Amino acid sequence: MRLAVSDAADQITGGRAVPEEKKPVIVAKNLTVGYKLHRERKLLTALRDITITINKGEFVCLLGPSGCGKSTFINAISGIVLPWEGSMEVDGKPVTGPGPDRAMVFQDYALMPWRTVESNIRMPFEFQNLGLSKAEIDERIAHYLDLVDLTGFEKSYPYELSGGMRQRVGIARALVTEPKILLADEPFAAIDAMTRESMQSELEQFVSKTKQTVVFITHSIDEAIILGDRIAVISRRPGRIKEVIDIDLPRLRFDSDVKSLPEYSEMRERIWDLVKDEARSGAHGEE
């Protein structure tokens, strides 16, 4: 087992040829992002001087205390917010706004309650023209319904589904346009512990099939280790990358029962050492 800590700044390729599976997809260089607080008439810096490269097909988890800028980081990838300083690039181009190559899975499902499962999944095609015929769109929707094990529930409404099933609808809606990048903002936080573990296993299997690049926000060390190829540990606001940790454990990890491995305990303790001071400070309301 290899437990390595990467210097994020050293991850930039500098133009060198790299294998296709190591091709940089998301590159943040000295990224600083914030917001205007209109009521208070001041500026809030959410992230400061973030430098990291995320490669094609990588599953990177962002781990850190509430309010540290994790959501701001994926919003910068999606193009919802733009840099104050530094840069954010996707496929070698500066991010200037949202695009069909990026899709988001939200914490609170974000489903339209008046629309059926099938209609919710169809929504992305109503907002962007991907050049697909109706038959091709219908085929795509059926494929992703099957992938998330919701075939037979096409005409059901969100209120008729369990929390886990609603989250699977959200995942299918994000996957159906086949984006290169999947952004997930604590997608399993609102469901019970047993369903959460099941969804973690299912997401790992989804990604192994779709080969998408994933950036996943979590507050759970265990979830980050189970899902991630790397974990970026973020400090308290303004968020900075404390360390990036490689997770070299066998996949599929639920099938391998990696939690029973001594390496897993070692890794968990190492990450807890990085986040415990941040967590305790946040619990006491310190700025």
Write the layout of secondary structure elements.
Elements: E1 5-6, E2 24-37, E3 42-55, E4 59-63, H1 70-78, E5 85-90, E6 93-94, E7 102-105, H2 117-127, H3 134-147, H4 163-175, E8 181-185, H5 193-210, E9 213-218, H6 221-227, E10 230-234, E11 241-246, H7 253-256, H8 262-283
Parallel strand pairs: 4-9, 4-10, 7-8, 8-9
Antiparallel strand pairs: 1-11, 2-3, 2-5, 5-6, 10-11
What does this structure look like?
The chain is 34% helix and 24% strand. The chain contains 8 helices and 11 strands. It has helices at 70-78, 117-127, 134-147, 163-175, 193-210, 221-227, 253-256, 262-283, and strands at 5-6, 24-37, 42-55, 59-63, 85-90, 93-94, 102-105, 181-185, 213-218, 230-234, 241-246. A 7-stranded mixed beta sheet has the order 1-11-10-4-9-8-7, with helices on both faces. A 4-stranded antiparallel beta sheet has the order 3-2-5-6, covered by helices on one side. Helix 5 (193-210) links the parallel strand 8 and strand 9. The longest helix has 22 residues, at 262-283. It is globular. The two termini are 37 Å apart. Mean pLDDT is 87; it is low at 1-16 and 283-287.
